[in-house]
Amino acid sequence: MIRLLLVDDQSLICQGLKAMLTLEPDLQVVGTADNGETAIEQVAALQPDVVLMDVRMPVMDGREATRIICQQYPQTKVLVLSTFDDDRYVAQSIRAGAKGYLLKDMPSQELAQAIRFVHSGYTQLAPGLMEKLMANVPDPETVTSKPVQKELTELTPREQDVLSLIGQGLTNREIAKQLYITEGTVKTHVTHLLNRLNLRNRSQMAIYANSVCTS
Question: What does the H/E/C string look like for the chain?
Answer without folding.
Answer: CEEEEEECCCHHHHHHHHHHHCCCCCEEEEEEECCHHHHHHHHHHHCCCEEEECCCCCCCCHHHHHHHHHHHCCCCEEEEEECCCCHHHHHHHHHHCCCEEEECCCCHHHHHHHHHHHHCCCCEECCCHHHHHHHCCCCCCCCCCCCHHHHHHCCCHHHHHHHHHHHCCCCHHHHHHHHCCCHHHHHHHHHHHHHHHCCCCHHHHHHHHHHHHHC
